Amino acid sequence: MNAHVQAAVRVVLAFTVSMWVPSAGAQAYPGKPVRVIAPFPPGGGTDIMARAVAQKLSGALGQQVVVENRSGAGGMIGSELAARAAPDGYTLLLTSSSTHAIGPHLVRKPPYDPLRDFAPIILIASAPNVLVVHPSVPARTVKELVALARARPGEINFASNGTGTLSHLTAELFKLQTGTNMVHVPYKGGPPAVIDLVAGHVSGLFAAFPTVSGQMRAGKLRAVAVTSAKRVDTERDIPTVAETLPGFESSQWWGMFAPAGTPAEIVERLNGEVLKILGDAEVRSRFAADAAQAAGGSAREFAAFLMADYEKWGKVVKASGIRAD
Questions:
Q1: Which strand (E) or helix (H) includes residue 32?
Q2: How far apart are CA 294 and CA 285, in angstroms?
Q3: Are 256 and 231 in the same domain?
Q4: Domain residues for 263?
């Protein structure tokens, strides 16, 4: 059985278990406060989304929904805590692709299996990166950048927010799909990477919009393309990488999970309530401020989405030989 089939079977089994495990007491859910673990520090994208959803969810469920930040190990500490919690709907996890599509591929012994140990509830939102370059780089389009990198193998360098981050892996995906040889320069977060890019010490960076929007507007950095499948509504003049490289897509996403084995009724109840919240104009506006677009869909659709993204980044990590331990 190949890796693709094994992953598919694991997702289906995990989802099926969550849908059919006996659910004594599920009818009365929730009968007490609900905890939502955000496995990253306060103030970041995951925390902001968790609090926006939790505030609205408290009213919808008639119980207090409390966000608990349990950061560390790239989000793995909080995610493991959620995976080991009782599957009763009172401990949920709101996390990003970092912990469920990328992180487990980077360590030899991940503390949880993102496909087996969780019941996907709903895809909350997604946000693309934007490829920016220093104005001195003689490339204004993806096609020109690829041509430049091929003409100067090993001479073009790109910054990242750190080894194994989505910023880094997006660049590795770009290299794989274009057959180019560019040098990776990792930084400890987005801000220091942007500082060196503005100074011209590195050539380019795949960055979150909020990290570089000010420099883009000031003309200190040039936007080449966005990494989403479609153009960003608020930045319609910036083309997608996929317009030049068909099929290229890389977006940070956020989703809500419960421990595997959580009763079907609870998963569906939460999916329905959060789906309504994601249609709220105030919530959508809050997400848009960070260039994120509210998502939605069914729990089953989220399970399939997770499997596909997990497999994609697993292939990139394997091909590039990246390790975090």
A1: none
A2: 9
A3: no
A4: 3-127+252-320
